Amino acid sequence: MRVSLILFALCCMLNVQAQTISLEGEWRYRLDAQDKGIKEQWFNQSFENKLRLPGTLDDAGVGDPTTLTADSLNKETLLMLTRKHSYIGAAWYSREIHIPANWKGKRIDLFLERVIWKSQVWVDGKEASFTEESLSAPHIFPLHRLLTPGKKHRLVIRIDNRKLYDMSTRDMAHAYTNGTQIMWNGVIGQIKLIAKNQAYIYDVKAFPDVQKKTAKIAVFLLNEMSTAANTRLKMKVTGKQFVFEKEMDVTIPPGGGSKELVVPMGNNVALWDEFSPDLYKVSVQFNGETANTAFGMRQLSNDNGLLQINGRRIFLRGTLECNIFPLTGYPPMTKPGWIKVFSAAKAYGLNHLRFHSWCPPEAAFEVADSMGFYLQVELPFWNKNAGKDDLMDKWLAAEGQSIIVNYGNHPSFCFWSMGNELEGDFNWLADILTSLKKQDPRHLYTSTTFSFQKDHGRFPEPVDEFFITQYTKKGWVRGQGIFNTYAPNFSTDYTKAIDSIPVPIITHEIGQYSVFPNMQEIKKYTGVLDPLNFKAIRKDLEKKNLLPLADQFLLASGKFAANLYKEEIERALKTKGMSGFQLLDLHDFPGQGTALIGILDAFWDSKGLVTAEMHRTYCGPVVPLLRFDKAVYTNNEQFKGEVEVANFSNAILKNSAINWTAKDASGKELAAGLIPAQDIEMGTGQSLGSFTFDLQKIKTATAVTIHLNGAGYRNQWTIWVYPEKLETGVAVKTLNEALPLLEAGKNVLLNPDTAALKGVQGRFAPVFWSPVHFPDQPGTMGILCDPQHPAFKNFPTEFYSNWQWWDLITSSKTMVMDPLPELTPLVRVIDNFFKNRKMANVIEAKVGKGKLILTSLDLTNKLEERPAARQLRYSLEQYMASKAFTPKVELSVAQLQALMK
Hints:
- By secondary structure, this protein is α+β, with helices and mostly antiparallel strands.
- 16% of the residues lie in helices and 33% in strands.
- It contains 14 helices and 51 strands.
- The strands form twelve sheets. Strands 30-29-28-27-26-36-34-31 form an eight-stranded parallel β-sheet. Strands 45, 46, 47, 48, 49, 50 and 51 form a seven-stranded mixed β-sheet that branches. The chain has a six-stranded antiparallel β-sheet with strand order 4-3-9-14-11-12, with no helix packed on it.
- β21 and β22 (289-295) form a beta hairpin.
- The termini are far apart.
- The relative contact order is 0.08.
């Protein structure tokens, strides 16, 4: 096992300036599907086929070609992106290497930066004395006892990507999955030989103390000689300027030793955070070699149950990174790929990424360090058997050690969870957490990122230093449990639900609002994964004559989802004791049933749903917030808004005033005012004042946008104002009532009871996560209509669902229009992409001698209490009375009866 050899990895991740030989380039390989290579001594044989490393068999087009096609819309096709070639098993790689004569007497390591899963090495037919099994850290093999300098040698690596431990329910943990990362076989990242002296630096750790303005630098040295090493050690610490330098004589006995120095960082020490990601560099020279590492002066704490950095509150505005890299099927191993990820996240106002059930490579930490991102790392663990499998438990403990020694110095490495949604023995989880915390107190720890296990998911464990959940013992802390159940209310938050939680609380995977697939995205998949899921959906839409609507479905469902994400984020920001949120997701996850739940696509590119600038107005360091009671008003009311600002910048906002305005859809100002200038402290839940304005001057149905503008920050919300009194006509409730009127040539509004209609019960919130992963869930993906259609002249609306539709949709029955001839509904409902039924809430048609509007929205009951329903009914009636009411499609009585029970 590689457990005893973790220390050998350190010098390489420390950027040791030693002699290296790159092994990038052409290798020969042979697949071992029947697992007979060791028995038949393939390590002594030549291989014919060629490929390039670093890389994977998928990159080389090696493996079984997929048998799936896009011909049918089934769960297998829609489960995830499809590997064009797939291979699970052992594969052998070989090449000749030449060891320079001047490497005589050196320690020589083979360095493989990332491998899935088990690796073994032979040199000239002789096996190295151990294997490697890490999914989180480099595989490193000391080979100096097998390599003779000045000669050529045959190097053979056997890599087996089969599952070693049952650490992942249904192989969904993102360190080992085919969900987005694939179960590739090969080597990615750096692949090289490294020569070092026999007495060498194997670790440098930096422990900052912000309060004392010092950093303890611990240097660990190994001596593989039989005699003591007497030499000089020189340490230098630099930031933007010189900080510290010291040189000393050291004697390192056989085996090794260590040196610690407390470095004064100076009165003007630069602290690391999201606003000033200042880094310091430690350079240690020892025995003719130099090791470098970077660190940041930052101190995390959870004082008073709130997240703090360097004594100042922080609020995590985060999303998940689930190893989503659809061109390669594996994460970038160099900085440019990660610069795109973090730049996109920052553009949309985020300061935090959670690496769901995996640990990213070195390049990700380096970019996050430089950009000031707060990262959450997790052990590669997602199942119900924590502490119940001795071999797996030992392997997970070893993974924890590997993560500490390879990535622990990075200031961006702020939070550490033992895994995702874990269940099992929480005493074991507490033990592994406590052990890691004792060794490395530079991070905050939690035993699991949420848990469904009874008595564990609703309240923190005693060892938890922060707590991630979707609900507590007192209620939900995310909109999925609220938005469909309660009428829109913009004054409440989660304060009651988080009362008595003793540690910082972060909301778990908020959002997960499904967005219709982007058919234009298909052409972007030019790598190892084939978007058969998208292609199958496209074929199904084409077959059903819905493909011309696909782009509109995307925009309508996406803008709806963006609005819901806005309210999710603002509710978290309004909650005084909250310490952050983790979206699922800012970008799509095209696995687990094609979960297209992002504002951005899987490539971190825009879908055209909301601009980065607009997203930052409600997701940024400073966000103005408005509390108000509802989305829909009548013109005999007053609007009252309570103004707050969530200030998670790096300073008090001095003498800050806020202007408010209310404008109609044309931009005409209806009301305006000023919240007087005042100091806005750090944090949230700070009421700055309120304002009211009268709605009586609004005589016709109007969408009103309320703007808050401060110095360098802004936000906006929409309400809908309808006349208090409207004269409505007569609607009939049954087809039997409607038919004589239609036969007489009348215009008829038919509004049956929902119980009398076939169809699907209306649900405001869109499909959760994926209609494939959760096929039995209710729900669609919002509405699609034409706001310029004369039917909506008196009911202002966007082309997609918004809050004024909540009562209409939740009291409706969605009609399935598949049996009917092609028609364009006045209000179309977007079905989930697994079924792609033609659905509607309002249709128009010629029937006999008359003209009909049939609606499955409740436009009849309690209209005095339901102003949106009353207003839509009025608008439809006005349309029916106009010359514009000229339905094009004729329906028979039998076709109408097919919609009824």
